[in-house]
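Quick one - first record:
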Amino acid sequence: MKITFLGATNTVTGSKFLVTLGTKNILIDCGLFQGLKELRLRNWAKFPIDPKKIDAVVLTHAHIDHTGYLPVLVKNGFKGKVYCSDATKDLCAVLLPDSGYLQEEEAKFLNKHGYSKHKPALPLYTQQDAFDTLPLLHAIPFRKEVKIDEETTISLMPAGHILGATFVQFKNYGTTLLFSGDLGRPQDIIMHKPAIMQAADFLVLESTYGNRLHKKINPLDELAEIITRTINRDGTVVIPAFAVGRAQHLLYLMYLLKRDKRIPDVPVYLDSPMARSATQLFVKYHELHRLDAALSKEVCELPIYVNSKEESQAIDAIKTPKIIISASGMLEGGRVLHHIKIFAPDEKSTIIFAGYQAAGTRGADLINGKASIKVFGETVPVRAEVKVLSNMSAHADYEEILDWLSHFNHHPQKVFITHGEPEAASALKEKIEDKYGWKCMVPEYMYTEQLN
């Protein structure tokens, strides 16, 4: 068994890990690179292995940085099964076609306005490419061992990050290889805590917050103060949010704040058809989180759902205070860009970030204090207040990661630190080595290691 790191190395995007088992090739996650141009260009480069030679894909969860390259793989000849949890399968049916649609729309916009160097600009894949991918998804239950061949099994355990998120465990000739995917938090307000794992010979571990601690602040208090301050000055609150996970988390907080009359009674708009579909799945899979079916339904009835482009444009024209939750969470596309274009120049308004912002994204530019950003080829000044919620992440911080590792009674021979910017990955490596004495490394892009 050997592993090759095809993504999520010194970056939080593009998760792809190739496990080679004799003549079999299994890909763990199949994500899009986002953010910095040098990373995004990898999406367009020839894939390091012929997709026809990949036997199967296993997904940790549905977020696009873990699944968004699947339609490219299929378009180029992959025909195997894509293993995942039930909730991940359903979420992919929402996210992947939406991703293809957005790419088609962006290509049309670039061609219409002549903003692209390519003539014509083309989408990486289309909505139809995404639909062609969905029949390959094959759901398996949590904790069930599935045979890949006579000597190899995979199993999925709950990771607590979003609906359906899992750890992926390989067993091959007595050697165990564990992938953390995105590790959730033990005290998340909605998601159940990650499964306790006790043994692995090799561990591929995420490090998004490997150099940071989440502030010990109640997000309800923080959100109530920001919203109230903004509404009192007649501003609008715009919250870029990942359509899966973060949007539903925010809706629950809004529900609690409105129920307890802690914020002014202004409309809450959820402007993302994808988020609406994901929110319906939030009700369907209520057993995967802490809210029961009735409460989940109440939360989902809170917002005003915005369906069409015309409705989206109309809410920007409303002069009275309001709250707009819209995708994408890192301002890399989607309807939220139209809202940012309108409200970023408004000093009365506030833009609130509730999730990680990868290097090179518009979201990272805003939280780093840039005075302007480019939106649809135009320079948009930023005069609105920009805030980052301190304790909203769905990723474990380094203390929570170390605590999760403390349950291992058979410690790994080696830990591969992935899914983190360079400083975060290096910091987590040092912390694990100092606390547990385990051998760790931060692999480079395309690094390969023999495991047994």
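second record:
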Amino acid sequence: MDLQNKVALITGAKRIGSVVADELAKRGVGVALSYVRSRQEAELTVARVRASGVRGELFAADLTSPDACRFLVSRTAETFGRLDILIHMASVYTARPFDDLTDADWSAVVDVDLRAAFLCAQAAVPHMRTQGGGRIINFSDWVAKSGRPRYRGFLPSYVAKSGVIALTEALALELAADNILVNAIAPGPIVAPVGTSDDDYRAVEEATPLGHWGGEVEIARAVLALLDNDFITGETIRVDGGRHLR
């Protein structure tokens, strides 16, 4: 895909999403960002996007709401006049023991990680068809891609992220005739969660064959690689420094 003058919608404007937006803007892509609570970080990202010489817009959207998912996509397409790329990064990741899980805990994760990925894609497809094709990139994670749970306390996350892989494969088949390529990225140790202790940080490094955390730019590079390629669809690519090998 020639990225110049294309338009991308990124759900999730924090940390990794911010760097992905920066790299897309450098390639001439107009960027729409959605956020729920991280408005200040999202505003800074949009300011950098605009400083790159392309259009950047910011939209508040609670993706637990189906109507909000659809409105976000339609508002983006209306504002920019087109939509070529959907990158669904929004995610809820909270540890909760199995015996303490509630209906609300389940929905909080599955509705954002999986259902919103489907709803945003469904809303985006007509706009992509108008342009003769497009790209959808979903986000799973390295544990789900490995095909077995490794950590207790993250049951909804594992189920949702595994579902993202299945959704990606099914969408790729459904949309291939429309020249809409659908793939997913499964990050591993990219950036440490807030509050990670020094000991835990080093333990992850030791468990990763390449011996270090990846950093946000590695995800941005993977996104660009998928956008540049015109013959990869239905794949989930791990970006984990070999973490799944141990």
